[in-house]
Known about the structure:
- The protein is mainly alpha-helical.
- Helices cover 71% and strands 0% of the residues.
Amino acid sequence: MPRLNLGRALTSLVPEPGTRRVYLLVTLINVYGIGLILTAMTLYALRVVHLTTARAGLALTIAGLVGLLAAMPMGHLPTDADPGMSSGWP
Length: 90
């Protein structure tokens, strides 16, 4: 039975140097930051605001739904304001 080489398996997940590797790094930083913020918001709601766990969960659920529903219209705002700017970069 072949053995799993963990080092080779992990390095196969990392793309070649260039744009994809930068995008991977930015995505990892973003996901890490979101995890920290959600944890801090939960602890703040429970410890400082003294919400019950059910109310804190409901508040985070509502915030997540508002973020999901607002993402698409907010993404269209730059192109609606200036149609010549299709990518959002100046």
